[in-house]
Amino acid sequence: GRTILHGARSSIGSDEASLLLNAGASVNAVDRNGLTPLHLAVSCHGYVDLIPLLALLVSAGADVNATNANGSTPLHLAALHGNILASEYLIGAGADMARLDLGGGGLLHYAACSPYAFLPPFPSGSIWTNLDVNARDKKGRSPIHWAAMGMHNWANLEVMLEAGADTNARDHQGR
Predict the structure, then answer these.
(1) Please, what is the Cα angle at 143 between 40 and 171, to 5 degrees?
(2) Range(s) for CATH 1.25.40.20 in the chain?
(3) Which windows of the sequence hold ANK repeats (predicted)?
(4) Taking a C-beta distance cutoff of 8 angstroms, is the pair 37, 5 a contact?
(5) Quick one: residue 126, left, alpha or beta (phi over 0 = left, psi -120 to 50 = alpha)?
(6) For range 129-139, the mean pLDDT
(7) What is the pLDDT of residues 68-80, one digit of tens each?
(8) Superfamily assignment of 100-175 in CATH?
(9) Residue 34 pLDDT grade (very low, low, confident, very high; cuts 50, 70, 90)
């Protein structure tokens, strides 16, 4: 089950979370899906003032590279939910941009299927240029495959195409 701290996602802010942490709430408690309070916090889109909450959780020892039952990290979920500021905060706090989920999906895979415009242009020398826009998951799908299967966010797709995504890429099933 979920703890009250897991509710930091939408119903409590950093002040309430601080009270819970000071009272002994576990910052790395997991629910039945392996989600930590940090996973859930980055999944919200505009409900709370997120950066102070993330800073509080991280300073209390939240694992920025914790994985849920699918191997997704808080950074993956921040990208999926279009939380650019949360993603940048997590990267600054040590989140591994190269970490893959259990199916081989990486940060760009999650960003590609986000319903929100997430990806910034990839200017030369930015942290994003180190990511492979043609990386394949375990089924041979690239981020643009995920974009086609996801919410069809053309803004994210356009950024990946400008960064050199292969429009003729085929997965292991020839699609």
Answers:
(1) 125
(2) 1-97, 100-175
(3) 1-32, 33-69, 70-102, 139-172
(4) yes
(5) beta
(6) 90
(7) 999 999 999 999 9
(8) Ankyrin repeat-containing domain (1.25.40.20)
(9) very high
